[in-house]
Design goal:
Layout lengths: L2 H9 L6 H9 L3 E5 L12 E6 L1 H9 L4 E4 L8 E4 L1
Antiparallel strand pairs: 1-2, 3-4
Length: 83
């Protein structure tokens, strides 16, 4: 799955696998919270995507895709249109 496809799936509310979430975080396309619990297998971290960054939103613009992103960061901003 490409970064563009992963961001589009995320913006549509689909779940992403953890390697994809980590990759998007590493390249700065999303922000995610660490939701690791005591039930998580040893040595592993579990991340939940919380927001698409401005860099991720610009990637949509490069492909001419308009999507609505629900901002769920610590400071709610409501629905935002990405051009």
């Amino acid at each position: 799955m490409t970064d563009k496809d992963a961001l589009k799936a995320l913006s549509q509310g689909q779940e992403l696998d953890q390697p994809t979430v980590r990759r998007l975080m590493r390249v700065g396309l999303i922000e995610a919270d660490d939701i690791t619990t005591l039930d998580t297998p040893g040595g592993q971290r579990v991340y939940k995507p919380m927001a698409i960054t401005m860099r991720g939103q610009k990637l949509f613009g490069e492909y001419g895709i308009t999507v609505y992103v629900r901002c769920t960061s610590r400071k709610p901003m409501g629905d935002q249109q990405v051009d």
